[in-house]
């Protein structure tokens, strides 16, 4: 019996092994027959930023031409996700300007990104960003599946977007209570009735993104105010359909709004002004109307016209939209009529996104922007923004835009924990001295800002952000013309001076250029007040003749201080750019210190036989940012982007108080 049982077991095992082997072969044959889907590499444009793509790792194909400076890059090797993907690939050296495939991998955000010039792309510096990415050659990892279609942060179906909007405006549970969520419809229903003055907490950050927090109303207080407002609107509203002719339309403080206050701004107010108005759902229709009345008052007070101020309006909510640009309406009457027709868009209060929109799109020549007029943005905010404004405002200021903030009814003490960015107004405005910001306790007091606002935006001498690193300096070139330079190399130095000069905005009121050539002696080639246009300056540089002689750099610095910078304007930054090819025959320490004490920022560029320690003595501290050594004259051109970047970085790091 045992023998029979063992024989049967062996037979069963043998049959099992045969079936197993047969199955393996069958599976192999089947797998050979099944064709794997071919991976298609998605294509993107040069302007696509990494932050817009949700996928953590992906392969894409970039087009040709992404070396263009229009596509901004932030960082070196590791790039902020605010950068153009394809331009970053060119900067990193993975691609050239002809395009191609790359592998992109998202990594954590950094506390700072340093700009650099590489492969024909100038990347910019950035203080910090929430997300980074690196660019690699398009060699896929084994076992990793890459998407054939990318997922974008804005690629939602209309149904999904509608659902998200509804969700964003629901009130989440109040922390430490058992209260039920209040929906938007319930909120509106309460607003209609007269309620007791009770302020409900604003939503908890846990219920929404920290960069986009919805902002429902302090219901009881606002509802009571709005019922009062039905009897206290502007006089002009008596003529609107449905207005009660028996009610006197007047502000509670006694100031009628029938005719806006005329501010005494004079006839020389020439600005290009954009109003960023709050169209978020939380503001309500009546307060939105008060906001429009302020705009109408400003339009009348400014006396809009081609020779004076021009004004456009952008409304923001979830996303910003231009109602009309600077050249749409050329007189106050037409502008006021257009303002009256503006309707509320609704949504969140994404102020940072709106400021970015204005910086990139509004102040263009096509929209009526005039290079001779300062750019001014007045941002109106009900409560607080639902996104961050600091970074967008920094980029706006660096573009020469003067940002003013009007905040109405800010967060109460128990609401401050829900504010996305504390002290947001001071982080946004051009200066933190109070000139650029207004805080209004109640919408009833908004009209009181009209006169001071108009006076401030027209005070062009105090519009500090109109001054940028490229239009606010007196730059003196101090050029070594000694015998060791030679005629050919001297021409190369002049080309270097020309390349630097081309980067600046040249005029009597913008950047001015002067030049000194030196050997044992010194010669003023031209002063700051001699030429007032870029073509004239470039021609003057071209005409400078080579002198030849010794090298007395210390005496040249003293000469430049006396003959050039002594005639610099008080409101100008003073920049000295000294180029030499050898060690000085005289002492440079005392003249260099004199330059520093007189507020002259000195850049020292040494070529060939120049002494490094001498360059560091001449240069403003820190020397690593202000002194450069080049081994050959022909390589001078490579340092133009870096010098410009350092000049601008230093300018933009000035305190804003």
Question: So, CATH architecture of the largest domain?
Answer: 3-Layer(aba) Sandwich
| Whole-number total of structural domains | 3
> Which CATH first-tier class of the largest domain would you pick?
Alpha Beta
In this structure, how is the largest beta sheet organized?
6 strands, mixed
- The total of helices stands at 18
Report the end-to-end length measured between terminal Cα atoms.
103 Å
Radius of gyration: 33 Å
CATH fold group of the largest domain: Rossmann fold
Mean pLDDT: 80
Percentage of residues in DSSP E strands: 15-25%
Q: Can you tell me the residue ranges where pLDDT is under 50 for at least 5 consecutive residues?
A: 155-267
The coarse silhouette is flat
Strand order of the largest sheet: 10-9-8-11-12-13
Oligomeric category: single chain
Give me the secondary-structure category: alpha/beta
The beta-strand count equals 19
Name the CATH homologous superfamily of the largest domain: von Willebrand factor, type A domain
Overall helicity: 25-40%
């Amino acid at each position: 019996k045992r023998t029979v049982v063992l024989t049967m077991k062996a037979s069963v095992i043998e049959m099992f092994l045969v079936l197993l082997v047969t199955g393996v072969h069958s599976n192999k044959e089947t797998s050979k027959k099944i064709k794997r889907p071919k991976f298609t590499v998605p294509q993107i444009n040069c302007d696509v930023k990494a932050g817009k793509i949700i996928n953590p790792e992906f392969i894409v194909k970039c087009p040709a031409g992404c070396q263009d400076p229009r596509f901004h890059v932030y960082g070196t090797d590791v790039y902020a996700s605010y950068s153009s993907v394809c331009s970053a690939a060119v900067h990193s050296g993975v691609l050239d300007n002809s395009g191609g495939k790359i592998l992109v991998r998202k990594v954590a955000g950094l506390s700072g990104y340093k700009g650099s010039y590489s492969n024909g792309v100038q990347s910019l510096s950035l203080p910090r960003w929430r997300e980074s990415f690196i660019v690699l050659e398009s060699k896929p990892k084994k076992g990793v599946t890459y998407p054939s279609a990318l997922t974008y942060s804005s690629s939602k179906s209309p149904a999904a977007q509608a659902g998200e909007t509804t969700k964003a405006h629901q009130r989440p549970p109040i922390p430490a209570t058992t209260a039920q969520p209040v929906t938007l419809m319930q909120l509106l229903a309460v607003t209609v009735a007269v309620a007791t003055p009770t302020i409900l907490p604003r939503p908890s950050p846990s219920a929404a993104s920290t960069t986009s927090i919805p902002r429902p109303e302090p219901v009881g207080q606002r509802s009571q105010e709005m019922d009062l407002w039905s009897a206290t609107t502007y006089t002009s509203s008596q003529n609107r359909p449905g207005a009660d002719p028996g009610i006197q339309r007047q502000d509670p403080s006694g100031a009628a709004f029938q005719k806006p206050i005329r501010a005494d701004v004079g006839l020389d107010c020439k600005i290009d002004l954009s109003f960023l108005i709050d169209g978020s759902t939380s503001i309500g229709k009546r307060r939105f109307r008060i906001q429009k009345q302020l705009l109408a008052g400003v339009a009348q007070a400014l006396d809009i016209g081609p020779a004076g101020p021009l004004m456009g309006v952008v409304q923001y909510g979830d996303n910003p939209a231009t109602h009309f640009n600077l050249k749409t309406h050329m007189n106050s009457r037409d502008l006021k009529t257009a303002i009256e027709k503006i309707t509320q868009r609704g949504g969140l209060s994404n102020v940072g996104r709106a400021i970015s929109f204005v910086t990139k799109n509004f102040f263009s020549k096509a929209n009526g922007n005039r290079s001779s007029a300062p750019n001014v943005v007045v941002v109106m905010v009900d409560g607080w923004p639902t996104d961050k404004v600091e970074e967008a405002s920094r980029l706006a200021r660096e573009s020469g835009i003067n940002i003013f903030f009007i905040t109405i009814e800010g967060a109460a003490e128990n609401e401050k924990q829900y504010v996305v960015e504390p002290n947001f107004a001071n982080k946004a405005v051009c200066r933190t001295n109070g000139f650029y910001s207004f805080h209004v306790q109640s919408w009833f007091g908004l009209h009181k800002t009209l006169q001071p606002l108009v006076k401030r935006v027209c005070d062009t001498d105090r519009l500090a952000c109109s001054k940028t690193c490229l239009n606010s300096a007196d730059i003196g070139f101090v050029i070594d013309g000694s015998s060791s330079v030679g005629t050919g190399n001297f021409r190369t130095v002049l080309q270097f001076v020309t390349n630097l000069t081309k980067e600046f905005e040249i005029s009597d009121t913008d950047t001015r250029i002067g030049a000194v050539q030196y050997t044992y002696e010194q010669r003023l080639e031209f002063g700051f007040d001699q030429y007032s246009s870029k073509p004239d300056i470039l021609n003057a540089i071209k005409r400078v003749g080579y002198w030849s002689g010794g090298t007395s750099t210390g005496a040249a610095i003293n000469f430049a201080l006396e003959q050039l910078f002594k005639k610099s304007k008080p409101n100008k930054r003073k920049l000295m750019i000294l180029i030499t090819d050898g060690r000085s025959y005289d002492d440079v320490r005392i003249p260099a210190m004199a330059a520093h004490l007189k507020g002259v920022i000195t850049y020292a560029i040494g070529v060939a036989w120049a002494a490094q320690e001498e360059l560091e003595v001449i240069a403003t501290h820190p020397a690593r940012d202000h002194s450069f050594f080049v081994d050959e004259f022909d390589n001078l051109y490579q340092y133009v982007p870096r010098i410009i970047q350092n000049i601008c970085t230093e300018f933009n790091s000035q305190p804003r108080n």
